[in-house]
Design a protein that fits this description.
The protein is mainly α and about 290 residues long. The chain contains 13 helices and no strands. The longest helix is centred in the N-terminal third of the chain and has 31 residues. The two termini are about 35 Å apart.
């Protein structure tokens, strides 16, 4: 029962803490500027954020994420022996995994743009990208926190407790998409979560997925910082030559991603960190520790 209950609990805890952080920001904003509530009533949805400043939201995100990691650690959902073990990574296949994921992320970006879902956090993210703490929270600290929670805490816990690998990979990816709560991010984050989930399963820790997550978010921060308001009008589909060409890029990007990850799946030796029947090629704990 715990193998399913604990991951659900971890996600609920994460959402509650994030929500609590938002409430704290709102209360402090009202204390600092009682006119904020009137601005909200007048139709300014960003009044709270404007009142508190971009660093406040960034610090709330960081602190709430660290608290969430602390709670799932208390629930013993983190395998501290392996979660950041560099010796476990086969860097040859690791690089192939990263390249495959980049193709997939590129295709998902195009697909997300074509879906044209509302981006409720666009202004907040743009403003945070112009603030040092905000940029660090989006580009580096946030990705690492999310990898601890959703790859190591949710997916890893299920895998270590005998849940079917594809159930663990796909469910954690979908949940990762949903918890963003921003329509424009949900399908992209879910797809990215599944790609990261496959790489996590094969590598046994969050090293490679953290590198990818940081790379993806850092590029986004750089775009928001360098382009500012112009980013709202920038259309990757137009840059690629239109809708038809963009569809070919999506098919090609996802195709290469799936093909290369298939090769990785077949060739990359899965570490002996899950209680599932291992093959003769899979390294033992002793082999891992002696590398």
């Amino acid at each position: 029962m715990k193998k399913v209950l604990y991951p659900i609990l971890a996600v609920i805890v994460f959402l509650i803490i994030q929500g609590a952080a938002g409430v704290v920001i709102a209360v402090i904003a009202l204390i600092n500027d009682p006119q904020v509530f009137k601005q909200m009533q007048a139709g300014d949805p960003n009044a709270f954020m404007d009142s508190m400043g971009n660093s406040a939201l960034a610090w709330a995100t960081i602190i709430s994420g660290l608290i969430s990691i602390g709670i799932i650690a208390l629930l013993k959902m983190i395998d501290w022996k392996h979660v950041l073990n560099l010796k476990m990574i086969d860097w040859g296949w690791g690089v192939v995994s990263i390249i495959a994921a980049i193709f997939g992320i590129f295709a998902l970006n195009i697909l997300g743009e074509m879906l044209d879902l509302p981006n409720l956090m666009e202004e907040q993210f743009t403003n945070m990208s112009n603030d040092l703490v905000g940029a660090l929270s989006i580009a580096i600290i946030g990705p690492i926190i999310e990898e601890f929670i959703f790859r190591e805490g949710v997916e890893g816990y299920m895998l270590r407790n005998g849940v079917n690998k594809w159930v663990a990979i796909i469910s954690s990816g979908i949940v990762f998409g949903i918890i963003h709560l921003n329509p424009a991010q949900v399908p992209f984050a879910a797809g990215m979560g599944i790609i990261f989930g496959i790489i996590y399963y094969k590598s046994g820790n969050i090293i490679l997925t953290s590198i990818l997550h940081i790379l993806n978010n850092s590029i986004a921060v750089w775009q928001m910082y360098s382009m500012g308001e112009e980013l709202k009008d920038f259309k990757l589909v137009d840059y690629l030559g239109g809708t038809v060409d963009a569809i070919f890029y999506i098919i090609g990007g996802l195709g290469l991603c799936i093909l290369w990850l298939h090769v990785v799946w077949k060739r990359y030796r899965k570490p002996a960190v899950y209680p599932i029947a291992e093959t003769a090629e899979t390294p033992t704990y002793t082999e891992l520790n002696n590398q």
